[in-house]
Write a structure and sequence with these properties.
The complex is a heterodimer. Chain A is α+β, with helices and mostly antiparallel strands. Chain A has two helices and five strands; from the N terminus they run ββαβαββ. The chains are: A alpha+beta, B alpha+beta.
Chain lengths: 104, 235
């Protein structure tokens, strides 16, 4: 499975377009991390707990997208985009989408 | 009274640790920016036509950063009179550079030298917490490219512009397929298989001095099926 955010890959030919595939996940931080983050809000600097959490969720969203792409018989997802939005306090939605194609 | 003390303590803590954290992270960012300077970032979507690509994959880098208590206090004051919020500007600058560096790090670890279509996205993750705009997430992502070898590039350019004609050089013909090869070549050059056979007894043999490259390649593919060692020599 080739994942990329450009539209074409030189040397490869798009045989079939299989439409949009997407994956999303909503994650909340647990209390321990929230308290640590609260402290960090005083001191400033990187909130490692949140960085990890968002990276994990992004991975999860990407995996869901890949699973959907596999289901429609694609071997690559092109033009991938990510978006993050906070739904309520303490929870964030990560959304990944792209075009599923069959390459040769 | 006690509230004021808590406030002052937080302010001083924020100032001290915030300064320290910022200096440390800027130092580290500067050092790594030098280290990863070789990786080229391009915001364009289309790749140059003559770029030889061995591999391409998605790379991401992300970071969540927050401002300290002192800076937040300054920002609150600033929002009364308006103007540039320098404390938040440095926060976003730091976040963005850090995210880009993490993306570069991932690309560099996998041997990529270029990243195309770089997108940088910023989002506030503490929405709804009143005045605390404090923490932002920055995500950078792009298509990392591992370039093919220079040799491949040269060959491609040769093929495109420099030479379109040349000759076939046969360096080895296995005994098992010799008869078949002779017949095939005789048919192509419209002579008898015996003549070709005589020619092939002294290797290497140069055939067809002004052959079109496309045609030569078709013939080479056929010959290679018969385990003949053959190459194309451009004029």
């Amino acid at each position: 499975m080739i994942l990329t955010n450009i539209e074409t890959i030189p040397g490869k030919e798009i045989v079939r377009h299989l439409g949009l595939v997407q994956g999303s996940t909503v994650r909340a931080k647990h209390v321990g991390r929230d308290i640590m983050a609260g402290l960090k809000n005083v001191f400033g600097g990187e909130l490692k707990g949140y960085t990890e959490l968002l990276q994990e969720s992004r991975k999860e969203a990407t995996e869901r997208m890949v699973r959907q792409a596999e289901a429609v018989g694609a071997n690559a997802v092109l033009n991938i985009r990510y978006s993050t939005s906070s739904v309520t306090q303490g929870a964030a939605e990560i959304f990944a989408y792209g075009t599923a194609v069959e390459l040769r | 009274m006690s509230e004021l003390v808590v406030f002052l303590v937080l302010l001083i803590l924020g100032y001290g640790f915030g300064r320290f954290a910022e200096t440390m992270s800027y130092n580290s960012i500067r050092k790594r920016e030098e280290e990863f300077g070789k990786i080229i970032l391009v915001a364009a979507k289309t790749l140059p036509a003559d770029l030889v690509i061995r591999e391409t994959f998605l790379v991401t880098g992300s970071v969540v950063v927050s401002v300290d208590y002192f800076k937040r206090f300054l920002a609150t004051l600033r929002s009364i009179i308006g103007g540039r919020m320098i404390s938040f500007e440095t926060l976003l600058d730091r976040g963005r550079r850090e995210a880009v560096l993490r993306m570069k790090q991932e690309a560099g670890d996998k041997g990529a030298t270029m990243i195309f279509n770089v997108k940088i996205e910023t989002s506030s993750i503490s929405k709804g917490q009143g005045s605390s705009i404090g923490s932002v997430e920055v995500l950078a992502y792009g298509a990392a490219i591992v370039r093919g070898e220079e040799r491949d590039i040269k060959e491609r350019i040769d093929r495109k512009t420099v030479s379109t004609t040349g000759s076939l050089v046969i360096t080895h013909v296995p005994e098992a397929t010799r008869k078949k090869v002779c017949q095939y070549l005789a048919k192509l050059s419209k002579t008898s298989p015996e003549k070709i056979d005589a020619k092939l007894s002294k290797l290497p043999v140069t055939l067809a001095k002004n052959m079109e490259r496309d045609r030569a390649e078709k013939i080479m593919a056929q010959l290679k099926q018969a385990a003949v060692e053959v190459r194309f020599e451009a004029k």
